[in-house]
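Bench notes, afternoon.
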Amino acid sequence: MALFIKILNSVLILFALYMGIKQGFAMVSGKAEMLQFFNKFDVGKPGVLILGTLTIIGAILVLFPKTFIYGNFITAAGILFIIALELNHKDLKGAAIELPFLLLSLLILYLQHPLAKS
């Protein structure tokens, strides 16, 4: 059972890494969709660049046992920030779309890093 949980968490971490790098690069490169999305919250291009950089850093930090908790914290904080922006603009649907990603980050944190020494 422990092996299954480690494998499951490894798959979840790789999925979170893929999503973090994909979304982070979309923000850093200033893709029109990202700029338009954040523009409705009055977050300009420099803010999107900073958020994208933090997203990439958080995704990469999750890979290593020593920085695992920091990466999860950065990832969860970024998602929570987006949820707060959505709720501030009374967009429940937008906030609800982000909730599974926040829960994924928290689940990964709960299951702990698969290579960490117990």
